Amino acid sequence: MVAGVINIGTENISFDIAQNDQDDIDIIESLDYPLFLGRDTFTTGRISFEKVEILSQKLLGFKRVAEEYGANKLKVVGTTALREAENLDFILDQIETRTGFTIDVLDDYEEKSHIYMELIRN
């Protein structure tokens, strides 16, 4: 099975595609794009319309890459910069309308758990 995860973070959007072979998971592609959503959220409290435009374009690009790899499953998660933006509902609505993605915005505990698990794994 081929699956992908897109992480919308404070400084960048990262995208990993992995393949499950027997008992092992192999990362077959990793991409990222610097976007610095945190600059908007932590200075103005809101994410700008321009960054929502760029985010939508990048998500559609990642979606095309996932399709090229034949990914069966694609999950999109967001972290602090999205979670703390005053215009979160607008952002989620725009992203879903433009890309078809529903973003799972992780709460603080979930985000830290993922970070901790990644540290342990490496």
UniProtKB/TrEMBL annotation:
> What organism is this sequence from?
Petrotoga halophila DSM 16923
Tell me the superkingdom of the source.
Answer: Bacteria
Database matches in SUPFAM superfamilies: Actin-like ATPase domain
A molecular-function term among this protein's GO annotations:
pyrophosphatase activity
Give start and end of each Ppx/GppA phosphatase N-terminal domain. 17-120
Q: Which Gene3D superfamilies does the record associate with it?
A: 3.30.420.40
The protein depicted here goes by the name Ppx/GppA phosphatase N-terminal domain-containing protein
